[in-house]
Amino acid sequence: ETISVIGLGYIGLPTAAMFASRKINVIGVDVNQHAVDTINRGEIHIVEPDLDMIVSAAVSEGYLKAVLSPEPADAFLIAVPTPFLPSKEGEVPKPDLCYIEAACKAIAPVLKKGDLVILESTSPVGATEQMAKWLADIRTDLVFPQDAENKSDVNIAHCPERVLPGHVVRELVENDRVIGGMTAKCSERSVELYKTFVKGSCVITNARTAEMAKLTENSCRDVQIAFANELSIICDQLDIDVWELISLANRHPRINILQPGPGVGGHCIAVDPWFIVSKTPELAKLIHTARNVNDNKPDWVIDKVKIAIADYLQEYPSKSAKDVTIACYGLAFKPDIDDLRESPALSICKKIAITHPGRVIAVEPNIKSLSSDVENVVLFEFEKAETDADIHVLLVDHKEFKVSSKPRGIVIDTKGIW
Ligand code: SAJ
Q1: Is there a contact between 244 and 326 (Cβ–Cβ < 8 Å)?
Q2: Any keyword tRNA processing (predicted)?
Q3: Could you report the per-residue pLDDT of 301-310, keeping only the tens digit for each?
């Protein structure tokens, strides 16, 4: 049996490597020449603990190879991005399925009777049916599940990934999987395939429910974080310590409030709820509001910094704003990682640097240098920032900050650790 994985990014590459580690022939397909070359050397082009060893072994033992365009296989797993189409300010962002469509066009010519096609990418409800239609439009000689219940030539399913970046290798094996076949046979074939390395349960449902399940998980977390973020703004107004409040409320046996912060980042939780909102805009009111609450939190933090600057200048009337040094602690999108993509902490720091006439310092223990688009920000060691800055803005609860004591001066602590 040969498995082909289309898209060798954060999900596709680890998945391809897991199959290959079980001595299954895997053909990885990616349009990025650099990714293909790197993988064929036994190396990786993304950051994920333990993945390098698995890929290197799989390639050297001959079970994994990467190519630019699909070759025949028995199962195709599609793990390509599903980004947004560009939207105007205030409009609901809509998902862009162009990479799924391109993957369909690429694999259609090599599809044969008996093959299985699985969509792993996080997708709006209906995307799997759309994928089946794209394939059927090209391969009119094959029978697809939408036309023939359990008698189709090609089997199609949606099996969303739900692994946590940084723990992908473990979670791929241990997490339960939702298997949404377009027919019962499609589901059975998919379970058989995943069982080669998945130790968690493979739970069968239909494709639409599987699509919605993935979006529901991340929307649930987004709504819960929005609740915590709204509480933090209310408590600030009412002069109540929100972290003490949450820990008290969480002593109730049926309450479990998440933690407020500077906003919600990453490529999943801040994105997936929009897939529900754009599908059912009139109905998804709470999910839409939660997205706005979390998206507006960085601006609230920036306003707090402006107030702090004004307070400082009132205390030292001989100084002006350009004499005030601001330190931002943490730039990553969550603690103890080096991932700056879609990070509210980074966006807050950048925005402060654009408007503030004085010095802006950043402390980020997980990175060594800042990219050129982060202007007017200098990277400092914690100790130097602590002594140099007048206003200290804690944005990420990295372990290094948790063990250090609260800096002297004005402190804005968005994570409640100081
Ligand atoms: N955050 C808070 N308060 C909290 C928890 C998180 O503000 O109490 C913030 C974080 O700082 C971060 C953002 O939320 O900015 C998201 O972080 P996260 O750790 O909650 O999630 P991700 O984006 O790293 O991964 C999520 C996971 N989904 C869920 O936990 C429901 C993961 O299992 C998914 O596979 C992943 O999205 C994905 O790929 O969809």
Answers
A1: no
A2: no
A3: 999 999 999 9
Other Cβ atoms closer than 10 A to 329: 33
Reply yes or no on whether the pLDDT at 71 is more than 90. Answer: yes
Domain coordinates of the chain in residue numbers?
2-200, 220-413
Give CA–CA dist 230/250, Å, rounded.
Answer: 16
pLDDT of residue 223: 98
The phi, psi pair for 91, rounded to 5°, reads -90, 150
Q: Evaluate: CB of 297 within 6 angstroms of ligand 1.
A: no
CA-to-CA separations, 300 to 48, 335, 413, in angstroms, rounded: 33, 21, 13
Which one is the CATH code of 220-413: 3.40.50.700, 3.40.50.720, 3.40.50.300, 3.40.30.10? Answer: 3.40.50.720
Residue located nearest, by CA, to atom 11 of ligand 1: 334
- What CATH number does the domain located at 2-200 have? 3.40.50.720
* Residue nearest atom 19 in ligand 1 by C-alpha distance: 334
Is the C-beta atom of 219 inside 6 A of ligand 1? no
For residue 266, which atom of ligand 1 is closest to its CA?
A: 23
**Are 69 and 106 within 8 A, CB to CB?**
yes
Output the CA 333–ligand 1 centroid distance in Å: 9
Local confidence band at 373 (pLDDT 50, 70, 90 cut-offs)? confident
Given this chain, do its domains 2-200 and 220-413 carry the same CATH topology? yes
- Mean pLDDT, to the nearest integer, of 152-166? 95
Q: Is 258 in the pocket of ligand 1 (CB under 6 A)?
A: yes
Ligand 1: which atom is nearest the Cα of residue 161? 35
**165 within ligand 1 shell (Cβ under 6 A):** yes
Contacts of 376 (CB under 8 A, 6+ apart): 353, 354, 360
Read off the pLDDT of each residue in 356-360 and give the average, rounded to a whole number.
97
Indicate the top mutation candidate among 159, 221, 243, 258 to test ligand 1's pocket, ranked by most ligand atoms within 8 A of CB. Answer: 221
The mean pLDDT of the chain is 96
pLDDT digits (tens, 9 = 90+) for 163-186: 998 899 999 999 999 999 999 999
**Minimal CA–CA distance to 103: which of 132, 64, 143?**
132
> What does DSSP assign to residue 266?
S
